[in-house]
């Protein structure tokens, strides 16, 4: 298959590109390489896939020096003309849209970035898929869409109409937009709600990177909600394995779906939503303990109140993923954290 992966210089996108290439797919990676966080990390990821910084020219496809089946193109999702031309030229079989403006707290101070990338950019992807007969669009949603929900574990059959950040609202909007295109144009779409992804090559703005850096440097870490937080941490290899399997599982629509008791995760149209999480929430203090064990150093903690936009706990119900895809993530938190710390030590210490 020929697959477009947007956000291919990002954390999950980088790992997914390598997973798809290793199994024999042809892949085109797309990323705008913005400066939301250190671009040196993005270029380092690209370099791992044979894409050299000095050879990148906006809008021009670049052949990998490592993988024969991989090309990369720097482009904004908001570039409607460029996106349309790319789709018309490449004739993708499937698309995985991971490109987005990420970060809950960043959305509090930079709201327009989320509208431009996550809404305007996503409609360009939907339109290009529609007009070029793409066989399956898989896109990243987020566990943040559960917002004020308190029923645990979070189920894709739950109502998610109470987000607590613009980032979460933009991801919910993506799900609604995708359903519209599945319904109107019979475009198969699958949304994936990722739960707190972590692992090697992770983002510098995420807790694991921040905590590990601070612990190695002997600095204090801010522990929000006085440490009374739980997260369903999911190792990046588990995430990309789930994404790869979902790409191969094209939704056909559910004959049992009805509008009297509508299941939000499905439809008569070729539309589906899955959680991808470890189904095993970890207390924040236990997470910090795993970092201390891997680094061999004790953390200095500054206990603080919960931040705006945060939720106290996440926990993924993955029954649909198990039953429909035959896959269940399961990397132990201590093993996953140790792998990240090894990577961090090799690259930053």
Topology:
Layout: E1 2-6, H1 11-22, E2 26-31, H2 39-48, E3 62-63, E4 70-74, H3 80-90, E5 94-97, H4 106-109, H5 111-131, E6 136-142, H6 166-185, E7 189-194, E8 197-198, H7 207-217, E9 220-223, E10 230-231, E11 234-235, H8 236-247, E12 271-276, E13 282-283, H9 284-295, E14 300-303, H10 319-325, H11 333-348
Parallel strand pairs: 1-2, 1-5, 2-4, 5-6, 6-7, 7-12, 8-11, 9-14
Antiparallel strand pairs: 3-4, 10-13
Helix pairs in contact: 1-8, 3-5, 5-6, 7-9, 7-11, 9-11
Structure description:
The structure is a single chain. With 349 residues, the chain is of the alpha/beta class. It has eleven helices and 14 strands. The strands form four sheets. An eight-stranded mixed sheet has the order 3-4-2-1-5-6-7-12, sandwiched between helices. The chain has a two-stranded parallel ribbon with strand order 8-11. Strand 6 (136-142), helix 6 and strand 7 (189-194) form a beta-alpha-beta unit. Helix 9 (284-295) packs across helix 11 (333-348).
Main sheet specs: 8 strands, mixed
Global geometry: globular
Distance between the termini: 40 Å
Order of helices and strands: EHEHEEHEHHEHEEHEEEHEEHEHH
Strand order of the largest sheet: 3-4-2-1-5-6-7-12
- Estimated radius of gyration: 20 Å
Structural class: alpha/beta
Helicity, in percent?
25-40%
Arithmetic mean pLDDT: 96
Query: What is the total tally of β strands?
Result: 14
Strand proportion, as a percent range, falls in 15-25%
Question: Helix count, per DSSP?
Answer: 11
- Poorly predicted runs: none
